[in-house]
Amino acid sequence: MCRSIKTLRTLDIPAADDEVRAAALQYVRKVSGYRKPSPANERAFSAAVDEVAAASRRLLEAVTATHPARHSA
């Protein structure tokens, strides 16, 4: 699932907020089955993207603090 989401923790520099949000959006699209939700589902869809992005950022910060990032070759 979500094979096309790029790994955000591969370089010495932290992932940009827009990269984290793009990955979260792609994940929510995959899970929900919506590329663009209907107006009735837009609020729930946007909230899910925000929550996944926030959880992803917390994960990236926690992992970076305890384990050095891989270097791209």
Protein model, in words:
This protein has helices spanning 17-32, 42-66. It is built from 2 helices and no strands. The longest helix is centred in the last third of the chain and has 25 residues, at 42-66. It is mainly α. The protein has a domain at 17-62.
| Unreliable stretches | none
Radius of gyration: 14 Å
Largest sheet: none
Q: Which structural class do you get from the secondary structure elements?
A: mainly alpha
Report the count of strand segments.
0
- Tally of helical segments: 2
β-strand percent reads under 5%
Average residue-wise pLDDT: 84
Q: Provide the succession of SSEs.
A: HH
- Shape descriptor reads elongated
How far the N terminus sits from the C terminus, by CA atoms, comes to: 26 Å
Name the quaternary structure: single chain
What percent of residues adopt helix (DSSP H or I)?
Answer: 55-70%
State the main characteristics.
73 residues; mainly alpha; 2 helices; elongated
